[in-house]
Amino acid sequence: MAETHPSELRQGTHPRGKNTRFVIIGAGISGVLMAIKLRERGFRNLVILEKAGQMGGTWRDNVYPGVACDVAAHLYSYSFARNPTWRSRYAKGPDIWRYYHGVARQFGVLPYIRYHQEVMSAVYDDGAWQLTTRDGEVYPADVVVTATGRLHQPVMPQIEGLDSFTGARFHTARWDTSIDLAGKRVGVIGTGSSSTQIVTALAGKVERLSVFQRTAQWVFPVKDTPNSLWTRLGFWFSEKRWKRYYLQLRSETEARGKAATSSEEGRKARDQVCFDALASIRDPDLRAKLTPDYAVGCKRLVFSDGFYNAVQHETVDVVVDPIERVVPEGVVTKDGKLHELDVLALATGFDAHAYIRPMQVTGEGGVTLDEVWRELPLSYRSMTVPHMPNFLMINGPYSPGGTSSVVGIAEAQVDYLLQLIDRIAGEGVTLTPREEPSRAWLQGIREKAKESVWGTGGCQSWYLDKTGTPTLDTSTLSELQAQLAVPEWGDYIERPR
Ligand code: NAP
């Protein structure tokens, strides 16, 4: 038989390679990205299992009033799928969903998505994986890619009497769009990025808006300027111009993100912007309520062009007395006051540590993911897991965050994973990371993260695990790309399939 040229291995045209079976879990930004890249390489034996009836992940689930992305739209796009027509600097949720749906269609990915297929278990045996869905469908795979998102499982607050509320009540990621909010008394519990977008959108549009704040947030003011027709035409006709703008946004974001992980000195300029914004609040009592007691950037910053205006609206109350319980008519605070409500929105965030759970994963020798992750979610560079051959993750535990657009991070990780895939498919092998380098890598990441403002800033946040250590890599996108440029093959165990 004729020798196979190395480029054919990379293209997936190897007799064994091109038939490699891929199952991607999740049809959000990362899952679609991986499918695009696999198709580009000539792989066709792939399927994306999506638990919902639509693709789009976060941008399918979050449909609350004011939903938008506070990362500039051009940067929150795939670097290879330019959208010259973003109407303003920051894009609204539905426009983002439309963009990603359009790209999935344009790159021929939609037919590979199987909807209503929630994966319950993945079991590795004899060189291959078997995935079983809630309905009992079984999908075999040589390579599993999890693209299940980090901020996906809503956290419901443990508040006495929550179920007794007789008005409409929902988590922000499950917003009931059938309810007309005009003339309603609306309560929002929480003051993170989701809440502040909702409050900004609803202030003055509902009868009364009560914002229940447990901890004040630092707010970095941004301006959502429209992209003029000329600007859009410029991006349309000149890819070079668009690329320049993309790179400029990327370095601005990295510089701001880097501030989170640098010295106090390095954070000064950014912090001052937040202090000045807070100082713009006219009423000293309200300003005091909104003044955080921890370092800027300890919690993920709120980027907003209207939150501080919104909370100064005469129909908005910022309630800082702790919530005692919920009753059928509304929320009772510790001072005994009943805040009567028609609608109660729970802007209480997500379980960022659930990762790919509740899926049950069993790797080689019957070792389960729960066992491997008993102490800490051990992985090699966030993307592979000891004892789990050919099990690849995008945006897995300790991926970078807060320093770049998550889209760029996913692209860097996918570029790395494709190098593993070339080998897995081209050479018919399994790759499993060794435990030692995985532990060493994780320790290094955790030590750096502990020193960042996320760890030292004196706050609680979804960044922290139960030991109080941030679960994010502090690397910027440029640093990550450099780290991931070439795999250290010695850190993997390679076996024939
Ligand atoms: P979050 O930042 O985790 O905020 C949750 C809020 O709920 C906090 O204010 C928290 O208070 C409060 N809370 C939780 N349980 C509570 C309870 N039992 N009683 C009272 N208050 C309670 O959640 P999020 O706003 O949904 O944002 C999560 C992340 O999603 C963001 O950090 C960001 O990464 C991402 N996001 C991004 C965008 C974007 O535009 N790119 C938009 C929205 C969200 P404490 O602070 O006291 O815990």
Walk me through this protein's architecture.
The protein has about 500 residues and is of the alpha/beta class. It is built from 15 helices and 22 strands. The chain has helices at about 5-10, 30-40, 60, 95-105, 195-200, 230-235, 240-260, 265-280, 285-290, 305-310, 370, 405-425, 435-450, 455, 475-485, and strands at about 20-25, 45-50, 115, 120-125, 130-135, 140, 145, 170, 185-190, 210, 220, 300-305, 315-320, 325, 330-335, 340, 345, 360, 385, 390-395, 430-435, 490-495. It has a 6-stranded mixed beta sheet, covered by helices on one side. It has a 5-stranded parallel beta sheet with strand order 8-17-9-10-13, covered by helices on one side. The model is unreliable at about 5-10 (pLDDT under 50). Bound molecules: NADP nicotinamide-adenine-dinucleotide phosphate.
List the helices and strands and how they pair.
Elements: H1 6-11, E1 22-25, H2 29-40, E2 46-49, H3 58-61, H4 93-106, E3 113-114, E4 119-125, E5 128-133, E6 138-141, E7 143-146, E8 168-171, E9 185-189, H5 193-202, E10 208-212, E11 219-221, H6 229-237, H7 239-261, H8 264-279, H9 284-289, E12 302-304, H10 307-311, E13 316-319, E14 323-327, E15 330-333, E16 338-340, E17 343-346, E18 360-362, H11 369-372, E19 384-385, E20 388-393, H12 406-427, E21 429-433, H13 435-451, H14 453-456, H15 477-484, E22 492-496
Parallel strand pairs: 1-2, 1-7, 2-3, 4-18, 7-20, 8-17, 9-10, 9-17, 10-13, 11-12
Antiparallel strand pairs: 4-5, 5-6, 14-15, 15-16, 19-20, 21-22
Bound molecules: NADP nicotinamide-adenine-dinucleotide phosphate.
